[in-house]
Specification:
There is one protein chain. The protein is of the alpha/beta class. It has one domain: 3-Layer(bba) Sandwich (FAD/NAD(P)-binding domain). The strands form four sheets. It has an eight-stranded mixed sheet. The longest helix is centred in the C-terminal third of the chain and has 29 residues. The protein is globular and about 65 Å long. The mean pLDDT is about 90. It binds flavin-adenine dinucleotide. Flavin-adenine dinucleotide binds next to α1, β4, β14 and α8.
Amino acid sequence: MNSDTPAQHFDISIVGGGMVGAAIALALSQAGLTVALIEKQAPIEFEADSVPDLRVSSINLASEAWLTKLGAWQLLQTMRLCPYQRLQAFEHPASIVTFDAAEVKNSHLGHIVENNLLQLALWQQFCTRVSRFCPDSVIALNQSADGACLTLDSGAQLNSALVIAADGGNSQLRQLAGIGTNGWQYQQACLVALVTTPYPQQNVTWQQFTPTGPKAFLPLPGQQGNIVWYDDASRIKQLAALTPEQLTLELLKVFPPQLGKVEVVNSSWFPLARMDANRYYSGRVVLAGDAAHTINPLAGQGVNLGFADGKLLTELIINAYQQQQDIGSQTLFSTYQRKRKPANLLMMSTMDGFYQLFGNDIPPLRKLRQLALTIASRSSALKTIVTHFAVGAK
Ligand SMILES: Cc1cc2nc3c(=O)[nH]c(=O)nc-3n(C[C@H](O)[C@H](O)[C@H](O)COP(=O)(O)OP(=O)(O)OC[C@H]3O[C@@H](n4cnc5c(N)ncnc54)[C@H](O)[C@@H]3O)c2cc1C
């Protein structure tokens, strides 16, 4: 395409077709809006015998309910995912606090899903109202009082009433819209590894808190699992350079006995950052998911917060569309920001509290966290509250 190519018109443009952007595109298109979805890289097709994606997420009941309404969850169930009924937290393997699905009268607390497959299930539900620009990316953003124009790398020009930035933590659109951020890089990083386990498919996810950082296990279908090892960033980089056989030996030295004699298949590592956009919109650009906030993955909440953003934002837009009002109005965006920013900040700060309380060996804090875990293990009321929190209930 060249610069003479006529501009194309859509109700909404979405930059980033990851889990959050794709769910938003699906919800809006199902309500009758036309959507341009710009994404750098399409999800990989599913093959039943493929090695699971290293990037997995724990999806809570609130997110599952929205994804079911959108019709993507049913498709994901025909691919690969693993439900879990119990969530365990402990410092010493002898004193485990267990949160059970029975506490919230449900068959499960959540599912571990592969990010790529969830994204794929959403993409496979798109109707013709979603026009994909993929692989493509944005080179320019121009805003006017009643709309925005995106120029893509391919030369395409897209006009729409608003642009949703769902292009992740390093959001280019957020920068083009001039929205600044607050945040920091944590001293810890995390290593994730796909492992085979000697046990049949497990229904429990657990996390051991140690002074150098948590060690977690997330079950996957069959005799597989995903481990997450948080530690000082320099230690994580050393571990990431090991062969699978060497890493297996290190894991078996450090992880608690309930892991069993696992074997590492492959691994990768991630830096950990906290980021909070100063505002969630500017002009006709509005942020959602990791483009608006990134959170310590300690309690597996990042994409669940992103889905909560997406659900509210799409409800507000669809409502305005049905009332024939401006779908990109500042009133709409400020309602969205007012409702989502405090909720996301609260979750971030809660995770930072956990990070500080459990990620050190200072004697008074050691006593405090032992006390916290003991109280949690003995109080069924507290356990029910924490379980409600974990599943994403209000
Ligand atoms: C180790 C780890 C474990 C985690 N575990 C959990 C968990 O258990 N539960 C949970 O809820 N969350 C978890 N998270 C967080 C979760 O992965 C993120 O919150 C989630 O991926 C955010 O989704 P998103 O769609 O907003 O952004 P992303 O997943 O970052 O997707 C952004 C999309 O935009 C595309 N893109 C980027 N830039 C451009 C561009 N310029 N043009 C076009 N396209 C672009 C990318 O290709 C990508 O597809 C974890 C994170 C980490 C690091």
